[in-house]
Amino acid sequence: MEITKLKALQPEFLEEIGFSWHTDPDSTPYIADEAVAVSEDEAEAYYAAANELYEMFIEAGEYVIKNNLFFELGIPFNAVDMIKMSWEDEIHWHLYGRFDFAGGLDGQPIKLLEFNADTPTMLFESAIVQWALLKANGKDETMQFNNVYEALRDNFKRLITLGEDISAFEEMYEGWGILFSSIADNAEEEQTVRLLQHIAKEAGFNTHFCYAHEAHLSADEGLFCNEQNYEFWFKLVPWEMISVDEPEMAALMTEMMRNKNTIFLNPAYTLLFQSKRILKILWDLFPNHPLLLETSFEPLAGKKMVKKHAFSREGENVAILEPNGKALVEKGGNYGNLPAVYQEYVPLNAHANERYQANVFYAYEACALGFRRGGEILDNYSKFVSHYIKP
């Protein structure tokens, strides 16, 4: 790997542009003072991989629904109707997601690790910070695989046009509003949502922000905040958490979908893609596909593997296992009671004893590359690393 050292962006500057979670709890900078050099061919390969995989996820989602495999994916029973309704009507448009990859550099093949399709973060740093980092270091900030801001703006318009051609947005748009919400007291999630709100407003929507607990939901009348009705609700609250921790809310949202008075973003069917156990379905449908790793609901025979749980986050309850099942590295967490999945181990891109995981955003098509740097298992102390395309 080729790594270029950069002058770090100062906390004061980051806060000026709205980026407040610039320092980790151990007082180290979250934004790395370096950038990964990527060739144009490598960037194109990441782009093509994400686009191809999204089509494969669509096929896998259809297979799960037709064969009633919700239990196998660890899907809460009270989310099934919402998933089916959102899948059957294209008005429930998928706004954006993020693929996590191993490989892709130094001739190593790209391999899918997972797809964060429901509540992906790392958006602000990918769309804004890595661009600012190159600019502050006197580099050509356009030399990146990074048009997620523009891609999201266009994809917001597709909430109305529901197709590739967005030129008809203005004549079709009838003043519909989008309410944006995050959980209170989480700066990263709030700023992610506020960035999305800014992009939607730029696209032409009426928008408003409130915390999730401030939104009022009515089965018959729809979604409100401060007595104002909104047709769309972007809520950075995972579907599985709503289903398990807020079952009354899940029942209410099901009725709102059934009554067709509110459209939720991202749609409920993204819970299928979010479940790490869909990786086994993908392997069944596309065995030995070059972008996939062998994955099973049972330990893999004779192979080094990674054990994950259906909806674990930030590396919690992830373990790297020897072929005999002995843990080489493992993390604790709050997801150990969820069903497990076993994925063939493949090393991440590496440089100077650090691992680099590639992350590609998808909004109608692949639209941005970034990296996270950390140890064998990336957790919430991993660092964000920018990239640039080598001339």
What key attributes describe this structure?
391 residues, alpha+beta, 2 domains, 8-stranded mixed sheet, 31% helix, 25% strand, globular
Q: What would you note in describing this structure?
A:
The protein is an alpha+beta fold and 391 residues long. The protein folds into two domains: 3-274 and 349-389, no CATH class; 294-344, no CATH class. The chain is 31% helix and 25% strand. The protein has helices at 11-16, 40-66, 80-88, 123-136, 148-161, 169-172, 187-203, 239-245, 247-258, 270-274, 278-285, and strands spanning 3-5, 31-38, 97-102, 111-116, 177-181, 206-209, 216-218, 222-225, 228-230, 232-235, 263-265, 295-296, 305-309, 319-321, 327-330, 340-344, 349-351, 354-362, 366-374, 383-389. Strands 1, 2, 3, 4, 17, 18, 19 and 20 form an eight-stranded mixed β-sheet that branches. It is globular, with a radius of gyration of 20 Å.
List the helices and strands and how they pair.
Layout (H helix, E strand, L loop, with lengths): L2 E3 L5 H6 L14 E8 L1 H27 L13 H9 L8 E6 L8 E6 L6 H14 L11 H14 L7 H4 L4 E5 L5 H17 L2 E4 L6 E3 L3 E4 L2 E3 L1 E4 L3 H7 L1 H12 L4 E3 L4 H5 L3 H8 L9 E2 L8 E5 L9 E3 L5 E4 L9 E5 L4 E3 L2 E9 L3 E9 L8 E7 L2
Parallel strand pairs: 2-20, 5-6, 5-10, 10-11
Antiparallel strand pairs: 1-2, 3-4, 3-18, 7-8, 8-9, 12-16, 13-14, 13-16, 14-15, 17-18, 18-19, 19-20
Helix pairs in contact: 2-11, 3-9, 5-7, 8-9
